[in-house]
Write a structure and sequence with these properties.
2-enoyl-CoA Hydratase, Chain A, domain 1; six-stranded antiparallel β-sheet; six-stranded mixed β-sheet; 13 helices
Length: 471
């Protein structure tokens, strides 16, 4: 056989393979669709024959006319990536490395920038940077639009490709070109990659009697860590209230979000999902144990609170278990399922929507706080520097009970010294964080009102009992 004949035969085989491969896929699709139609008693069935022919034609044209030879495997993988990217921003193709990275992100340690992203209008939108991550320290903020990664325009990459570009060897740099609301021009931020230690939960007594729990993301053990923090609070202090901080929390493991809600309520529905495929419809109920012991609760959210964070905020809001404060959340109300294709490949596909206990879908809407509190900063000014009271007047009458004001004899020099004293942790955290400061104030207000309401309720109950006995 001469070279021309061999080349013709090889071309014919490749062309036939390119044509037959989609038809085999179509045959499998058709058989499955017909079976599904029989099961669901469908009377009308439309098969995408023209689209499959078009796909085959495009595949052949690229293979034969593109300026450089392209591997058939690469072409088909790119087709799969494009197919999933066109459905929604959260569905994606997972090659072997991608699947391994997904496991790392849910178990606690991985390399990269430490930022959760999605796709919006062709650009990469920052959902939130992780606390203390390289991205966070470099100044990346929730809501930023990344329009270029080094020299790669964001419009040229899928979500999976974005993750690949951001991850790399620890110590290497990546330059992110960013558009930010309120800033007229794009600007660059250089971020140095690190091994990311995903610490999910931080907790402390932030003021005597008031606990603070920061949940940065939902990994496998988050629910148990929150329950342990509450138990520790009760052992250390007479707990009067808790702030649960979910700001800039991009989400994570659904079951962990359920566990966090379960730490604050004793019964009832937490969340349920609805989808088309088997096992996509789930319901999660609370257990009978309440590690918080019913103390007042404030939950902080913002535009960086997404997915599992919104499940927690929505459930606690529906159960009227806590006051939701901050700004409107991100609005990701969909559930992604990893569906294996081979031993080392899979797709992450949106398979269901989740709903709060009262049936609310937050998809593209988000959770609206009970009290809107924007970001800000608190500046503490000692009252002695700006106030003028009766006790400061020359010749004022003394108190009839013989009591003296605690600050009546504070000198101007002492007041200036007091103003120069820098607040210490944990008070300093509240001073810097206006939303957290307001959350603590709300909890204090609840603790003032709560005993009175409980006393009135007990009095009314006793009166009702006595009235019943008299009759």
């Amino acid at each position: 056989m001469n070279n021309n004949s061999f080349t013709y035969l090889l071309t014919s085989i490749r062309t036939a393979t390119a044509v037959l491969f989609p038809l085999v896929l179509l045959s499998l699709f058709s058989a499955q669709t017909f079976a599904q139609a029989d099961n669901e008693n469908e009377t009308e069935l439309l098969l995408p024959l023209d689209e499959v022919r078009l796909f085959t034609e495009v595949l052949n044209r690229i293979r034969s006319a593109y300026v450089e030879p392209i591997d058939d495997k690469a072409l088909l993988e790119n087709a799969i990536k494009g197919m999933l990217a066109g459905i929604d921003p959260h569905s994606t193709y997972l090659a072997a490395d991608d699947y391994e990275q997904l496991q790392e992100s849910t178990t606690g340690e991985f390399g990269g920038l430490g930022v959760e992203v999605g796709i919006e209008d062709g650009f990469i939108k920052v959902i939130s940077p992780m606390d203390g991550s390289p991205a966070d320290r470099a100044g990346v903020q929730a809501g930023d639009l990344i329009i270029k990664l080094d020299d790669t325009p964001a419009r040229e990459v899928t979500l999976g490709d974005t993750v690949d570009l951001m991850r790399g060897e620890p110590g290497t740099d990546i330059v992110l070109t960013i558009l930010r609301e309120g800033v007229s021009d794009a600007f660059e931020i250089t971020v140095t990659r690190e091994i990311i230690q995903a610490r999910s939960v931080r907790s402390r007594i932030i003021e005597p009697g008031y606990g603070y729990i920061r949940v940065a993301s939902f990994s496998v053990d988050t629910g148990e860590e929150v329950k342990s923090a509450l138990t520790k609070f009760h052992q250390e202090t007479e707990l009067k209230g808790v702030v649960l901080d979910l700001r800039n929390n991009p989400g994570g493991v659904l079951q962990s979000a359920v566990g966090v809600v379960d730490a604050f309520i004793t019964d009832g529905l937490i969340v349920y999902t609805e989808g088309r495929v088997e096992n996509s419809e789930m319901r999660f109920e609370a257990s009978t144990e309440d590690q918080s012991q019913g103390v007042p609760l404030v939950v902080l959210i913002n535009s960086g609170s997404a997915s599992a964070s919104e499940i927690v905020a929505g459930a606690l809001q529906d159960h009227q278990r806590g006051i939701i404060m901050g700004t409107e959340s991100f609005g990701k109300g969909s559930v992604q399922t990893v569906l294996p294709l081979t031993n080392d490949r899979a797709i992450k596909l949106t398979t269901a929507l989740y709903f709060t206990p009262k049936g609310r879908s937050i998809q593209a809407l988000g959770i609206t706080p009970d009290i809107i509190v924007d970001r800000g900063q608190v500046t503490r000014i000692p009252d002695s520097l700006i106030s003028y009271r009766e006790a400061d007047l020359v010749g004022h009458l003394v108190n009839a009970n013989g009591e003296e004001s605690d600050d009546a004899e504070v000198s101007e020099e002492e007041a200036v010294i007091a103003a120069e004293i820098q607040p210490q942790e944990p008070l300093e955290v509240i001073v810097r964080d206006y939303q957290l400061n307001e959350a603590i104030n709300v909890l204090k207000g609840l603790n003032i009102i709560r005993p009175r309401v409980m006393a009135e309720s007990e009095t009314q109950l006793l009166e009702d009992i006595e009235g019943t006995s008299a009759r």
